[in-house]
Each structure stands twice: as C-alpha cells, then as structure tokens.
UniProtKB/TrEMBL annotation:
This is DNA-binding SARP family transcriptional activator. Belongs to the AfsR/DnrI/RedD regulatory family. GO terms for molecular function: DNA binding. The keyword Metal-binding does not apply.
Length: 955
C-alpha cells in the first residue's frame, strides 16, 4: 500500500485507488503519514483536525476516526501508542518522504560534482508531484506547518534543477518552464534571474533584458523594492555580454571561520549525537539548532566541537559570528556585513540597509551547504536575519535562552557534567598524573564546581599554573562558600564575570528577585516560595525571564503540579553576594519567607494529624465535607510536602543560619509526621539536629522538649531504644519544668511504647494506662486514640483496639484508622481468627492506597502475606511479601525490607524451597545486624532454626 500527499490525498492498494473518506478523516490520515513510523500526540492530532476550537469530546471522537481509518488501511497499520497514535508505514511508501529523500540524494550528487546525475535525480523527485501538497486536506494546521514547507522545498528543488540544467547547457529546454514559473511566482527573484540567464545563453539578449524590466516592474509595483543583488548581477552579465561560464555555483574561497576546537573537550556524547542526528534527518530543509543552558555550561565549546566533527559535510564552508560584544548584543546589520564579506561579497557591494543585507544573505546562502555557528545569542529577533536558507545548511545557535520563539528550530538544554566527566576534564586541564594521585580531592573539586565546565576549566588552570599546590589544598579553598567565587578566577576567565554578564542584562525586577532567591540554599523553588521572597507579589513572569536568561532552569512540574525552578549552586552564591551588597543581610528576606513557610507547613501537618497533640482539636467538618473530599485533602498534603521536601529541609538550616531560631525549630517540628510517614530518616535527623540547636541557642525550652520527643520517635522507629528512652526522659523533664501536663502526657505515652519494645510489659502498661487517664481528663482526642491503640496492642485487648478505631474515625483520621485496623488484624491472626484478620488487613490496605501512603501500604501487604500463610496459600504470601519488599526498598526502608525478607523466608519454607529461605534469612540478618535491631535478629534466628530443622541440620 502506497500513499500520496503531493497533490490530493491518495491511497494506492495494488492497482486500486482507495477513497480516504470525510474531510476530518483525511486530515487525521495526512498528519499520521507526515510522521510515518513516529508517534503523533493526541494534542497534535486535535490541533490538526479541529484547529484552535476542538470539541470537549475530541479524544473520544479521534478514536472513532482512527477506527474508520483502520478499516480502510488495515487494522494493524495504525497503532495506539503512549500519548497518541502512529502509522506503521515505511517512509518510502509515502510520496512526500520519498520526494525529500530523492532531493537529498540529488544534492549529494551535485556536491560531488555529478551535475547530470543530480539534475536527473531532482527531475525524478519533482515528477512525484500531482498538484499542490495536501490539496484536498482541510487543515489550517497542516497547511501552515507542512504544505508550505513542502511547496517551498518543491520550488527550491525546481530552481536547483534548472541551475544544473543551465550548467549543462540545456538552456533551450528550460526557458518555457521558467516563463511558467515566474508567471506563477512573480515575486521570486531567483526564478527571474534564471530566466534572464537562460535567454542570454540561448542568444536571446533582447528578451533577457526585457525579462529584467518585467521583473523590476513587478517588484517595484508589488513591493516598492528594486531588484536584489542576484537579479542585478544577472542583468549586468547580459549588458556586459559575458558568457555564462561559472555563473551557477560560482564561489570564492571557502570560509572556515569557526574557532579552533578545544584539545581537552570532554564528554557531551548525548548532545553531539543529537546534533549529528538532526543534521542528517532533516531531509532537504535547512536545520536550525539551539544549544541553551546556564552561563559557563560550555555551549560554545560544544558548538565549535560539533562544527569541527561535521565540517566535512559542508563543502561551502563554516561561518562564525559572536552575537554579544562585551555586555551588549551585536546588531544583526553589523553581523550580516561580516557574513556577507565572508561569503565573497566584494568590498563596497554590501547594501546599506538591513533588509537589503538580509535579502542578499539569503540569496547567497540559498544554493550553498554551509555550517553557521551563531554564538551567545540574546534573542530571537537577533538570530532570525542570520539564518541561512540553503536546503543543506546547518545553523548552531548558542544562547542562555531556549529561544522558544525561533521558528522551525529545535533546542537542546545543556546541563552540567557528571562527576566522572568532571574529573576527566579536570585531569585534562590540570594533568592526569596529579588527578590520579588525589582521586578523592579531584571528586571534591568537581562537586564544589558543580560540574560547570567553566568552573572546572578555571580550577584546572589554577592547578596547572601552581605545581606546588595539591588538589586537597584547592578543594579546601573552594570549600568556603564565602570565597568560592573569588577562587574561581583565572586570567580573563571568571565565573563571577560570566554570571554578572547575565545579571546586568536583567530588568530591575528580575535582578531583585534573583538577589532575594540568593537567601535560600535549596536546589530549586516553586513560585509560591519565590513570591514570598519577593514580598508576596506574583513572580511567574519574572521567573520565566530568569529562566530565559539562563540564570534559572525550569525543571517542569513536581508531584504537586507546581512548576519548579532550579539553579546552579554557583549562581546561588552569586545571587547571595548581590543580595548582601545591594540590600544588606538576608535575614529580612528570610523572615518574610519563614512566615509563609510555617503557615503552609502547619496546614499540611494539620491534615496529616487531624488533631494536634495536646489541643483536643479536630478538623472542622463543614457542610461540604465528605470522606472523598477529606481523602483528597490528605493525599494533597502529603504530595505537597513530598514535592517541597528538599526546599523545606534546606529552609530549616537557612532560618537557623539567619538567626531565626523560632522559625527553625518550629519548621523542624512541623515536618516530623511527614518524615515518619515516608521514612525520610536522614532528613528527620538533619532537621531535628538543627532545630534542637536553634531552640537551645534561643533558650526555647518548649521547642527543645518537642524536638526531643520527636527525636525519641525516630530512635524508636530505628530500633535504638536506649537512645529513645534517654531523649524521652530529657523531654519529660523539660515539660515538667514548664508545667505542660498535656505534652508531658504525650511524652509519657511515647515512653510506654519504648518500654513495650524493650519487653518491659508491666512498666509499659502502667505508663500507658496513666496516659489514657490523663488524655481523657484533658479532653485530648488524639492522645486518647493513640493510647487506646497502644494499650490494646500491649494487652492484646480487642475492645481497646476497637475503641481506638472508633476514636480515629471520630477524629476524621483515616491514617490512624488504617494503623488501628492493622493492629486488630495482628490480634485476630494471633488468635487464629484468619478470616477476621484478612478483613481488617484488607480494609486498612484500601485506606492506605486511597491516601497514597506507600510505606503503610507495604506494611499492610506484609500483614496480608502473613494472613495468606495462615490460610495455607504460600504462593499468595510470597507475592504480597515481594510487593511489600519492592516498596520498602524504593523508599530506602531497610528495616521494612528486612522484615519482608523474613516473611518471604517463611513462605519459601511452606513451599519446601529451603535454599531460597536460607538466602532470605541471611539477607534479613545482615540488615538487622547493621541496624542494631536486636528484636529483628531474634525473629530472624527463630526462622533460621525452623529452616535448619527442615534441612535436618543441628539447631
């Protein structure tokens, strides 16, 4: 089956011509054929079929259209793919793709000097056309983006073939064709020029001169413009009576203007492969590629290296233009003057006006295969006039901005180098031997330079010029943030200067926002945090401008649906310098940020814990309340905290450094329920340590006590029971000093949990019973629910656990409800009530999944695995335990993964797979031993004894 797009849409099946169907079906089929073998997204197909006004049911209607087309072209030909559809048709079976391939082959023959072969190839390619491209396809989108491009390529191919025919002396054969061409396209100067030369070659000088006058009249009347240089040159040749020899393809010296390649160029295989692929996959159209990224990321080096690698494929030369002169952008007119001279335009023949220069440049590049490097572009308007028009041309534009508005261009964002490539680059600049001698220090320098090529080059240059320095010495100097930018200077290379160039080009508002973001040490921010630093004003536009200037990088949407903006650490240091120098201390900015941060995190914590400890308050349920709405809010709070986790952890340290002790300890305390829920133990340790230090320095005894209690929770979860008990005793002492009975009761409740974990049931029961009485007397609903669950678990009392379950429901706390259901399931399992255990476990698991709480979900799966073993279904037990283990490992919960291994070992024993059981036991024992979890080791030893008994080994 073959398809035609170069004229009315056509389907050829053997000798039969099939009808493509209604207009929208034709548009859909054409869009798929134009990207044959590639996925076309639903958004793209919707725009093709309906333009800017698609129906609400567009996606479902597209499915209907696709079904109809499948009946026409074969069910397996149009395939559903992630995000869209693709048509599985070889490109050779679509005339538009075949045309572009044939044109490219002809151009290669032309460049190799095989003019006759090239002319015949172009003639064959043009013979595929049956009329205007997509003639009966009613789609403004396709006409604008594809039909115009194909028609332009058709005209270019026709003109190139005529050029070749003129070179081959076939002037008589092309005169008629050229008269038709200028009649159809009267403003196309190149065709007029060819007609003039064809008539001149045929000895029809008067007709050639008359043709020039016709062309001039049309241009003046229609455009108000005199003929351009190429047309005037053809006229002059006729007037002078010069023969046509050398007219077509006449060239001066081939320019090779790109700077020399860098000897120590390192890495960047991905972008180099992308450039090469784009250059070869473009068919006959000129290719414009934008390499963008932050200051110092090595964009220019990549462009020059790529130009060096690809240079042989551009026989007409390589041009280079620096588009920034110092701190100011170079004017397009001045750059064009240089480019025109490089292309052989005689001295004094360069037009004075910008538009005339653009026309001449386009004419001079139209038949050449050039590689053009436009370095350090400021904006789209600067670049547009400089793009060559030759079908085989490649333009590499470097810019700090993605230049989204540059038509028909493709962009690649250059990031920083990875650690391995960074160390390699350092070695190539500073010396391989020195880097091999101090590998740790080399990696440290790479980290402190943030993988930024400019910074690495400067660091390597400083080492190369100071043979007495060790790498450790330079790493130490770079380690001080306050002087790092001072160290990253070598000769005329300076990271500060490169960043300053971009900063000075910003508007005042963007400068102020960048400075204030320098008060934050987080690797990225959401707009709400940037707005807080900016004084509460909307900052979306300013953030986009900073990203366009390469000083921020748009990182896409986070899990909470917020756009995030990141930046290089050296940019952050520069912004912090500007803040201190231009506005003074960062404390004032951080104080405003702290108020917004604390309010947002406090609200999120309230959703995680519907009644705050010691308040007796529950979440207010309005008339609009529903379980589904509540679940959505709970999921949203955890998702938002997850998205902001890195920012919030950094903020604790930022507030502490700025002397905002109250904000530092409060934020550390507010984050603890989230860290517990997601098992972010390292972040919990870091923020708790900073928060405790801040509270102690400020003399805030209440904050210190709350964080000691939170630290005890962390130690208890990690199995470090002695440390947990010590932290709780210290917290209890402070709460007693403050006379804070409710908080003292909550700390005592934690102590009861620790005592129970230490196998001291009598002391634990007494402690928990006292807490329950205190909570009930104080009206602390959450404390009562927690105490009922703990006491019920300790006593193995169904009535207490059921009462705790009821209390969590009354609180509107589904997380507490799920935890209580798990405890009830364990109790039923111990009492061999397997059916009741399964019911409770499954109810709890449904809640965890509804909330999106992955670690509690893993705990629920592990419980279901134990239930399945009790039911005598070890295969189901193994499947559930493996799923739980995957989740635990995904979240870095080593203790959970070790417990899952024990359940897996038990299932293996039930299946009489003793070797598998031993392997699982060994893995769990190694983890429990590394974690110092004595209780886990004891449980593992019990399973190991059973495995040895089954194997017949001594116990």
């Amino acid at each position: 089956m073959r398809f035609g797009l170069l004229g009315p849409l056509q389907i050829l099946d053997g000798g039969q011509v099939l009808t493509p169907g209604p207009a929208k079906h034709r548009a859909l089929l054409a869009a798929l054929l134009l990207r044959a073998g590639h996925v076309v997204t639903l958004d793209r197909l919707t725009a093709v079929v309906w333009g800017d006004d698609p129906p609400a049911s567009a996606e479902s209607v597209l499915r209907v259209y696709v079904s109809a087309l499948r009946r026409l072209v074969g069910a397996g030909t149009i395939r559903t793919a992630p995000g869209g559809y693709l048509i599985a048709v070889p490109a050779e079976e679509v005339d538009a793709h075949r045309f572009e391939r044939m044109v490219e082959q002809a151009r290669r023959a032309r460049d190799a000097g095989r003019a006759a072969e090239a002319a015949d190839g172009l003639r064959g390619a043009l013979g595929l056309w049956r009329g205007p491209a997509l003639a009966d396809v009613d789609s403004g989108e396709l006409r604008r983006t594809q039909a115009v491009r194909l028609e332009e390529l058709r005209l270019s191919a026709a003109e190139e073939r005529i050029d070749l025919d003129l070179t081959l002396g076939r002037h008589g054969e092309v005169v008629g064709e050229l008269r038709a061409l200028v009649a159809a396209y009267p403003l196309r100067e190149r065709a007029w020029g060819q007609l003039i030369l064809a008539l001149h070659q045929a000895g029809r000088r008067s007709e050639a001169l008359a043709a020039y006058q016709d062309a001039r009249r049309v241009l003046v009347e229609e455009l108000g413009l005199e003929p351009g240089p190429e047309l005037r040159a053809a006229h002059d040749r006729v007037l002078a009576g010069r023969g046509p020899t050398g007219q077509v393809g006449e060239r001066g010296a081939v320019p090779h203007e790109t700077p020399p390649d860098i000897a120590d160029f390192t890495g960047r295989a991905e972008v180099l492969s992308w450039i090469a692929g784009q250059a070869t996959a473009a068919g006959g159209a000129p290719v414009h590629l934008v390499l963008h990224g932050p200051a110092g990321s090595g964009k220019s080096a990549v462009a020059v290296h790529a130009a060096t690698l690809l240079g042989a494929g551009f026989p007409d030369g390589r041009l280079y233009a620096a588009l920034r002169a110092g701190s100011r952008p170079a004017g397009a007119g001045a750059v064009l003057e240089d480019l025109l001279r490089s292309l052989g335009c005689p001295e004094g023949a360069v037009p004075a006006g910008l538009e005339d220069r653009v026309r001449l440049y386009r004419s001079m590049t139209a038949t050449r295969r050039l590689l053009v490097v436009l370095d350090d572009a400021v904006g789209e308007s600067q670049v547009r006039p400089l793009l060559p028009t030759g079908p085989g041309c490649l333009t590499l534009v470097t810019s700090r901005s993605p230049l989204y508005g540059l038509e028909a261009s493709r962009a690649f964002e250059l990031g920083v180098l990875g650690t391995a490539d960074s160390v390699t680059m350092l070695a190539r600049v500073a010396g391989e031997t020195r880097v091999r001698a101090e590998p740790q220090a080399a990696r440290r320098i790479a980290e402190l330079c943030g993988g930024l090529p400019l910074a690495l080059r400067i660091a390597g240059s400083r080492l190369a010029r100071r043979p007495g320095w060790t790498l450790e010495h330079l790493a130490g100097r770079l380690g001080d943030e306050r002087g790092r930018l001072d160290e990253l200077t070598a000769g005329d290379l300076a990271v500060r200067g490169s960043l300053g160039l971009g900063y000075r080009g910003l508007a005042e508002e963007e400068q102020r926002l960048l400075r204030r973001l320098g008060s934050l040490s987080a690797p990225d921010v959401a707009p709400w945090a940037a707005a807080a630093a900016f004084g509460g004003l909307r900052v979306e536009r300013q953030l986009e401008e900073l990203a366009g200037a390469g000083l921020l990088q748009a990182r896409g949407l986070d899990d909470a649906g917020q756009e995030r903006y990141g930046w290089h650490d050296l940019t952050r240091l520069y912004a912090a310098e500007r803040l201190v120098e231009e506005e003074g201390t960062a404390e004032r900015v951080l104080a405003v940020v702290a108020r917004e941060v604390l309010e947002r995190v406090r609200r999120a914590r309230t959703l995680l814990l519907p009644a705050e400890p010691g308040t007796g308050q529950t979440v207010a349920r309005t008339a609009e309340w529903s379980p589904a709405l509540e679940t959505a809010h709970l999921r949203e709070s955890a998702r938002w905290l997850g998205a902001e986790r890195g920012f919030l952890v950094a903020a604790v340290a930022d507030f502490h450094r700025a002397g905002l002790a109250d904000a530092a300890w409060r934020l550390a305390f507010y984050l603890t329920p989230f860290f517990e829920l997601r098992a972010h133990h390292e972040d919990w340790h870091a923020t708790n340590r900073t928060g405790l230090e801040a509270a102690r320095l400020a003399g805030h005894r209440h904050g210190e006590a709350l964080l000691l209690r939170a630290l005890a929770d962390l130690h208890r979860i990690e199995g470090r029971l002695e440390e947990a008990a010590r932290a709780l005793q210290a917290a209890l002492s402070r709460f007693r000093e403050l006379g804070d009975g409710p908080e003292e009761a909550r700390a005592r409740h934690r102590l009861g949990l620790v005592l129970a974990a230490q196998d001291r049931p009598a002391e634990a029961e007494r402690c928990l019973a006292e807490c329950l009485a205190a909570f009930e007397a104080a009206g602390d609903a959450r404390g009562r629910a927690d105490a009922l669950r703990a006491l019920g678990t300790l006593r193995r009392a169904e009535d207490l656990l059921t009462a705790g379950l009821r209390a969590y429901r009354e609180l509107g706390d589904p997380r507490g409800e799920a935890a209580a259901l798990r405890e009830l399931a364990l109790l039923h399992l111990d009492l061999r009530r397997v059916s009741a255990a399964r019911d409770c476990a499954e109810r709890g698991l449904r809640i965890d999944r509804r909330l999106g709480d992955r670690l509690p979900e893993a705990a629920g799966l592990l419980l279901l695995a134990r239930v399945a073993r009790a039911e005598g279904v070890p295969e189901a037990a193994r499947a559930a335990a493996r799923e739980a283990s995957t989740i635990f490992k995904e979240y870095g919960d080593r203790r959970g993964a070790a417990r899952a291994s024990l359940v897996l070992a038990g299932a293996d024993l039930d299946l009489d797979e003793i070797d598998g059981a031993f392997a699982a036991i060994a893995g769990s024992m190694a983890e429990f031993d590394a974690l110092g979890d004595r209780r886990g080791m004891a449980e593992a030893e019990e399973v190991a004894q059973e495995a040895r008994r089954r194997r017949g080994l001594p116990r």
